[in-house]
Amino acid sequence: MVSDKGSPMRAIWLVLGLFAASGCAALIYEITWYQLLQLAIGSTSVSLGVLLASFMGGLCLGSYLLPRFADEKLHPLRVYAAIELGIAACGLLVLWLLPLMDQVYFAGVQVGVPSLLLRGVLAALCLLPPTFLMGASLPAISRFVRSSPRAAALWGWLYAGNTLGAVAGALVAAFVLLRLFDVAVASYAAVAINLLVAVASLRLARTTPHAVAAPGNDNVVNLGRGSGEPLWPVTLTIALSGATALGAEVVWTRLLGMMFAATVYAFAIILAVFLAGMAAGSLIAALVLRWVRPRIALGICQILLAGAIAWAAIMIDKVLPFMPAITSLNGWDVAGGDFVRAAMAILPATLLWGASFPLAMAAAADASSDPARPVGRIYAANTLGGIAGALAASLIMIATIGTRDTERVMLLLAAGSGVILLLPRLREPLIGAGVAAVLAASVVLAWTLPDQPGLLVVYGPDLLGLGKDTHMLEVVEGRNSTVAIAKRDDGITEISVSGHVEASDQIADMRLQRMVGHLPALLHPHPVKVLGIGFGAGVSAGSFTRYPTIKSITVCEIEPVIPPTSSRYFARADNNVLHDPRTRIVYDDGRHFMMTTKETFDIIASDPLDVWVKGTASIYTREYFQKVREHLNPGGFFTLYVPLYQSDQAVIKSEIATFFSVFPNGTVWTNTQLGGQGYDMVLMGQVAPLKVDITAVEARLNNPDYSPVAVSLDQIGFDTAKEFYSTFAAQESDLRDWLKGAQLNTDRNLRLMYLAGWSYNADLADPLYQEILDLRQKPTNIFTGGHDDLVMLFGGMKLRAHDPGKARAAGTGE
Description:
62% of the residues lie in helices and 10% in strands. By secondary structure, it is α/β, with parallel strands linked by helices.
């Protein structure tokens, strides 16, 4: 042995701390790389599946292959240090080289299978090398503890410490590094952690032996693989455990994400709760290993998981949606409340999944073997099962059989995997009767499992306050999101996507949706080819069907179930645009399409999900706007929907400042609620300075060929072009001083995603609206025309600024 200063337990505690730090760095990388790669290959379920397969595939390969290629005679801490150095190098390379790889991808991307293959190649080039090393770290460090049945407890401690570090990494990345800084700072922080761990490991290797023995009684008979016991049942069970864990995580993340407003913080919290439960479960199992038989305990864990999965389904359906929403303006209060609610639902299951890993390692332990082999085999099997479960749930099962039946499959798989290990002992009366009872109970639980509440899909965190006067018409689950159609008692029909109303036929929403299309189309002298980003209710795209010169309407929509679902209820409002012969639907996320298409357009109109929804900020970045500008034909226009509600000043300033940084000649147009209060707005950009001859535009609107356009505008309260364009709110020169210091939203920071998610509970729509109007100067540099027309136009603008109610009455004919 070594001196007391270098005692085995002291060394083990130090290694445990290093491994926890390594887990922290790994999750910082994971979140950062996912954010960077999604910007390139897209955010569809297929793209995310490719990312997941690449990330977890690397973990699987690393854990399985290291014991077979790394010499057992090398000091484990030196091998571990080399692995950490390699991860740090990969972290820098991904950060520095990914922009170049993105350009290669964008230049070579095609459609169909070639596109999918290219996405896979890009993800693999970026993720496989570092994740291979991450996967190799656990079997490498496990060699530090001499293989024995009781060593499995310490391996479990290492796994728990690493997972607990991952919890810290997930929270630090989302709430500190990426919220306050950017992906470069986050990556450098993770690299620094890797370097510190590598240096500390090398120093520790100088004062510790090649391996230490796990302290405790050598005569522990309950642990390890018994004589003649096959290993495959343990391997299969832990693989199925990984499949049920990741499959259920996909379902619960989707459901809880709707409940927590689908912000970037909500997803970080759900991931942190999941990992924290697994860390706690691993620690508990490691502590009790000496008193249990690992195979039996592992089987019991899987059987108990059936009840835990049912518990989560019941909590998500019957309890959590009906708890009072957290309305605090303090983001930390909201995060804490969401953490508690997520834990109430999924913590029991995560504890059992976490306990399964050290139990499986203990069941596979063999005193005569290289410790890295059983650890690597169990880790690889668990990870491989996780890949299968996650991909099956996200790409196939939810869209085909729904979330409830997906949970049923996971429940029955968990129970069945437990039976696999207990089969040899079914002849024992107590175990046989218990297994039979559990199987019967599992079938009953699966049969009675509740479905997701439809109103959760409609209103998300606002279900309790808004859902009582609403009736469900239809819920459709797609690969990327869940869509719901609901009708309120006041007759308003709404279409919601994953917990938030995306569009409706109430006048304020209809006005906004048509403004997105009519603002540019009525100004363009001869629009022919247009692109819409986001289908929603189809109203924005449908406004283009009213123009006689438009020959091509392309709509980019990420979720394939939205257009047919919404068209069953909004065909009249959207002029049946889905079935218009000029319409082409491209099922891709808007950013990926814009970055990869070679087409150009006369008008690009964007009406996406609200900005606080995780991922939406990627189509509000400066780089995205630059790409939009490149795809505009000469004289073309770009319009973008921006909500004023559930936003604060920092969010609005970031959106407008980022937009003006690419479209300095852009303008802001506002939409109000029925009472004239601020509601949302449209940003409109073009390359040249905007010039509007309002008399000529009025004449165009009065042309018989434009009568469908006039009818469409009349339906939302605008009788004339002068009334319509009196919604003008500001130009860049009006807001220049106001926007000083605004945080620009870029691909490197996605600042808007973090700002908007933090201010979700803000109620400042009307104050922000008035603040913008108070800064507006008379736009004589933009509008020209006949004297009387200009008097009416500027008069309408004045009414909106000083008496919104009168402006609304003038605009709606009341």
